[in-house]
Write a structure and sequence with these properties.
- GO terms for molecular function: DNA binding.
- With 225 residues, the chain is an all-alpha fold.
- It has 2 domains: 65 residues, Arc Repressor Mutant, subunit A, CATH 1.10.10.60; 150 residues, Tetracycline Repressor, domain 2, CATH 1.10.357.10.
- It is 75% helix and 0% strand.
- The protein contains 10 helices and no strands.
- Helix 1 packs across helix 2, helix 3 crosses helix 4 and helix 7 crosses helix 8.
- The longest helix is centred in the N-terminal third of the chain and has 41 residues.
- The chain is globular and about 65 Å long.
């Protein structure tokens, strides 16, 4: 084999190894997300994650350093998912009220389809964000949501549509509160009120409701003395 061919082969093998590493890491994160969401940090078993991914604890520790490192990576990955959707939301062509509805509906859709994310957030709150506070990515976990919301609020105020006494974090809290409650409290709510908050027949109603809540609040009292 010529030197050129050998170099080309080595490069191809290196690329494939990198692809394998990316796939392996993604598989580990996916399985670990379910394991931690189901059992919490203390109850989750690295042996179970290894078995379900047909790998070894040694390999997991190679990628993530420790069980704590794996858990933190799961949290960061979970938050990165919703933040990527928020950052990619194209709303500049929409009027401010419609743009705000679009963001609320995006959050609604994401939280409904990612119950593990909701459970991870609940678990981390039980531990007072002990692990999340250690994240090197923490500083960037809020930026997409705040930036998108801030831009919509600014346009709405400039148009005389939105009130000026709330900021992006306030609005994010309102949207998150509705969307997280609907998923996190589904079972207790049904037991007490005999209503399934994730009933497909009520989905459109609740999706519209979260948009109504946010837009009506932002436009309340605007222009009044």
């Amino acid at each position: 084999m010529s030197e050129g061919a050998a170099a080309e082969t080595a490069t191809a093998e290196a690329v494939e190894r990198r692809r394998d590493a990316v796939r392996t890491r993604a598989d580990l994160l996916a399985v670990a997300t379910t394991e931690f969401a189901d059992h919490g940090f203390s109850g989750a078993r690295v042996d179970e994650i290894a078995a379900r991914t047909r790998t070894t604890k040694r390999m997991i520790y190679y990628y993530f350093g420790s069980k704590r490192g794996l858990y933190l990576a799961v949290l960061e990955h979970a938050y990165a998912g919703i933040r990527a959707l928020e950052a990619g939301l194209e709303v500049d062509h929409l009027d401010p009220a419609r743009a705000m509805r679009a963001l609320a509906e995006l959050t609604f859709d994401h939280h409904e389809s990612h119950p593990d994310f909701i459970r991870l957030v609940a678990i981390e709150n039980i531990h007072r964000a002990e692990h999340l506070k250690q994240s090197e990515a923490l500083a960037g976990l809020a930026a997409p949501a705040v930036d998108v919301l801030g831009g919509i609020l600014e346009r709405g105020r400039a148009a005389g549509l939105f009130r000026a006494d709330v900021d992006a974090v306030d609005v994010h809290m309102v949207i998150s509160a509705f969307c997280i409650f609907r998923t996190a409290n589904r079972h207790t709510f049904q037991a007490v009120f005999d209503r399934d908050l994730l009933d497909p027949g009520r989905r459109a109603h609740y999706r519209r409701m979260v948009g109504d809540l946010v837009v009506e609040y932002l436009t309340a009292h605007v222009g009044r003395a």
